Amino acid sequence: MPGDRIITPPWRLAGSGLIIVTKPDREDPSLQRFTPTELRPRALPGLSITMFVDYWRSEAGPYRELLFIPSRFRIGNARRWSISRIYVSTRASVVGGRANWGIPKELASFDLDGVADQRQRVTVSREDRMIASLEFEPFGPEIPVTTAWLPARLLRLAQYRDGQTFEFTPAARGRMRPARLLGAESDPQAFPLPGSGRMLGAFSVTSFEMEFPPSQVVEGLP
Asked: Domain boundaries in the chain?
């Protein structure tokens, strides 16, 4: 199938989206549910991140995604973020994400009402079953942001898949403003409730450019 062709990195992407940062309740059973078994003993206290992204362009074409990062994890002697649940709107993104970066992408449908930098509502579903829905609205001044301001070690991700660990550091720049999360719901078996726990902030990324480089891959889980 054409969608099963692996589009190799780097991927250069542009789009808009939403970032939700929370301080999770570590006793919440859903946090364990959405953390891979191999990584649970390695979880570190800190922040969880939920993101919705509307990619206008990429090497894999336009697509949308909803992802969850439960925390940082001990990987070898380092601390790494890891995406534990992610849905995307195209088969090409699923195939490329799994093969290139070990990201556990699953295919879903996305309905988006509204436009970037205004009130938006996104609903993610699979086989007519709602996975998650969120509504948000940006406000306040827009500011430029770039990952170049931060040390690479704070941005590095590690994904464990099929007996291998993939490590990579995306780079991005764009414009961001605060956002209000007006509503959120989810199927608790499919995706954690967006904004659950103590929400520290929500941010509308009105436009960005990003690069996903090739991974460094090692056998096993350091």
From this structure: 2-219
- Whether this prediction's pTM lies above 0.70 is answered by yes
CB atoms under 10 Å from CB of 71, counted, come to 21
For 72-103, the pLDDT digits (tens) are 999 999 999 999 999 999 999 999 999 999 99
Please give the CATH topology (third level) of the domain spanning 2-219: Acetoacetate decarboxylase-like (2.40.400)
Mean pLDDT score of the chain: 95
Residues in Cβ contact with 107 at an 8 Å cutoff, skipping those fewer than 6 apart: 87, 88, 89, 90, 91, 94, 126
Name the residue with tokens 């991974």: 215
Give me the pLDDT at residue 197, please.
Answer: 87
Token digits of residue 26? 């570590």
Q: 104-109 long-range contacts, Cβ below 8 Å, gap at least 24? A: 104/159, 104/161, 105/65, 108/66
